[in-house]
From TrEMBL:
Keyword list, A-Z: Cell membrane, Hydrolase, Membrane, Metalloprotease, Protease, Transmembrane, Transmembrane helix
Protein name: Protease PrsW
Cellular compartments per GO CC: plasma membrane
InterPro entries, per the entry: Peptidase_PrsW_arch/bac, PrsW
Length: 230
């Protein structure tokens, strides 16, 4: 494959997923320049993560559990959470619960996209391997972003449960990302039997969270007949 073909195949899944979740915002789509900015910040996170992960591997070893939940999931999700929380959480554009999903997914997919580009060129990846990565690592990062963003949105617009949802916004992505990595590290030959149910569950839950976040938008107009049902 040509360099352009490989680059396109590596970038396309992340961009496509970001557009998908961006268009799922029913009531007030976010400024494209701000979403792009967060995506690019996610891209830049790859470099400090690479350095820190190498240092952690030297210090903590390569035990599959420690690597999955601390060195990989813990570090990556914390830095993505840190980025979204300190750049976007108090921004005026973050004005409805679903916005948390948009920005967390943007940061996650920025990270996943550059990671995918590195993989494609360093491993001389084929189209089939890039399709595999689109279905698993790239979409996995999107799902972790949905979980993170959903709970950041709940934290901002549900003051009584703010602390709980802030904890969930970091702890749950780390947990599911850790489970994802642990399966791939420890089930070399039969990982598909674990991964298909896991990804199916994450997609179903993520789409539920998307609908739930939209339903809680303060910009949503509730018709009289809906108020009766509620």
């Amino acid at each position: 494959m040509s360099v352009f073909s490989v680059l396109t195949a590596a970038i396309a899944p992340g961009v496509a997923l970001l557009i998908y979740f961006y268009l799922k915002d029913r009531y007030d789509t976010e400024p494209i320049h701000l979403v792009t900015k967060v995506f690019l910040f996610g891209v830049m996170l790859v470099f400090p993560v690479m350095v820190l992960q190498r240092a952690f591997v030297h210090g903590l070893g390569e035990n599959p559990f420690v690597f999955s939940f601390v060195i990989s999931a813990g570090l990556e999700e914390f830095l993505k959470w840190f980025l979204v929380y300190f750049i976007i959480y108090k921004h005026t554009s973050f004005d409805e619960p679903y916005d948390g999903i948009v920005y967390a997914v943007a940061a996650s997919l920025g990270f996943a996209t550059l990671e995918n580009v590195f993989y494609a060129f360093l491993n001389s990846a084929s189209i089939s391997s890039l399709i595999y990565r689109a279905l698993l690592p790239v979409s996995g990062h999107a799902m972790f972003g949905v979980i993170m963003g959903y709970h950041l949105g709940r934290a901002k617009f549900d003051p009584q449960r703010r602390t709980r949802h802030l904890i969930y916004s970091l702890a749950l992505p780390i947990f599911w990302h850790g489970v994802f990595d642990y399966i791939l590290l420890t089930t070399k030959t039969y990982w598909v039997w674990f991964m298909i149910p896991l990804m199916s569950y994450l997609w179903i839950r993520s789409l539920w969270k998307v609908n739930r976040a939209n339903a809680k938008s303060p910009l949503r107009v509730v018709h009289p007949e809906e108020q009766v049902k509620i």
